Amino acid sequence: MSSRSTGRRPRPAYPVLLLLAPALLAGCAPGDRPAAAPSTVWGSPSAAATADLPAAAAPSASPAGPSPSASRAPLRRVFPVRADDVAYHPTHSAYPGTDIFADCGEPVVAVTDGTILEVSRVDRFDRRGPLGPYNGGLSVSLLGDDGVRYYGSHLSAISAGVDAGVRVRAGQQLGKVGRTGNANNVCHLHFGLSPKCTGHDDWWIRRGVVWPASYLDSWRKRGNRSPAAEVTTWERKHGCPKAPRTTTGAG
């Protein structure tokens, strides 16, 4: 006995094909076919073009914004003596420098952010000599973040914690106006601008190589004029002289 499935005549599929034919023909319409490539040869990009192509995109580590250098605030500078009654001359004897006259005990402050280079807490000045190395008495020099060495001497005291290698900020007290060294018993701060030179025996450079008065004028008026360019120019021209031009003068 044959099964129903094998004994039944299969139905022809022609009606189904006739129904699908229009759809198949529409899908292959000439307007929908991809256009033929104009050339069968693939041209690789030039080396220059490849060099200018960006690398594969990667997730950004931080949101887009100005770079740290673009947003960094300019280095601030302040007048080195914090007092209402001060005076100074635009010139100085024998070499560039400035004597800032103020009452003994007035605060001497860091001109700008930087690192303490040298500190002298003992007054070793002796009128019998040697002339020069100990003229400043109690003194502090600061290497500003602008590369300039700011020097102050004849202090009556140096603040606790102000030692070589210590970071300080603009306006931070470093000591007090005094009359140590060869200050001739006159209360004042000797102030000098110079590049940093190697060693602790370059007192003839540390005491000052460019005239400070124009910069002091700016800082006293809350300006921010920088001596960095002038000091750098001086160093490129002179380097670090191994001996002083003169052994006289304050500082």
What is the element layout, followed by pairings?
Blueprint: H1 4-7, H2 14-27, H3 47-52, H4 68-71, E1 87-88, E2 98-101, E3 107-109, E4 114-120, E5 138-144, E6 148-155, E7 157-158, E8 167-168, E9 173-176, E10 188-195, H5 203-206, H6 213-220, H7 228-238
Antiparallel strand pairs: 1-2, 2-10, 3-9, 4-5, 4-8, 5-6, 6-10, 7-9
3D structure, described in words:
Strands 1-2-10-6-5-4-8 form a seven-stranded antiparallel β-sheet. Strands 3-9-7 form a three-stranded antiparallel β-sheet, with no helix packed on it. 29% of the residues are buried. The chain has seven helices and ten strands. The N and C termini lie far apart (130 Å). By secondary structure, it is α+β, with helices and mostly antiparallel strands. The protein is globular. A hairpin with a 3-residue loop joins strand 5 and strand 6.
Broad structural category: alpha+beta
**Rounded mean pLDDT score:** 79
What is the makeup of the main sheet? Answer: 7 strands, antiparallel
List how many beta strands DSSP finds.
10
Number of helices: 7
**Could you name the ranges where pLDDT drops below 50 across 5 or more consecutive residues?**
1-11, 13-70
H/E series, N to C? HHHHEEEEEEEEEEHHH
- Spatial order of the strands forming the largest sheet: 1-2-10-6-5-4-8
Salient structural properties:
seven-stranded antiparallel beta sheet, three-stranded antiparallel beta sheet, alpha+beta, 251 residues, 10 strands
Quick overview of this protein structure:
The protein has 251 residues and is α+β, with helices and mostly antiparallel strands.
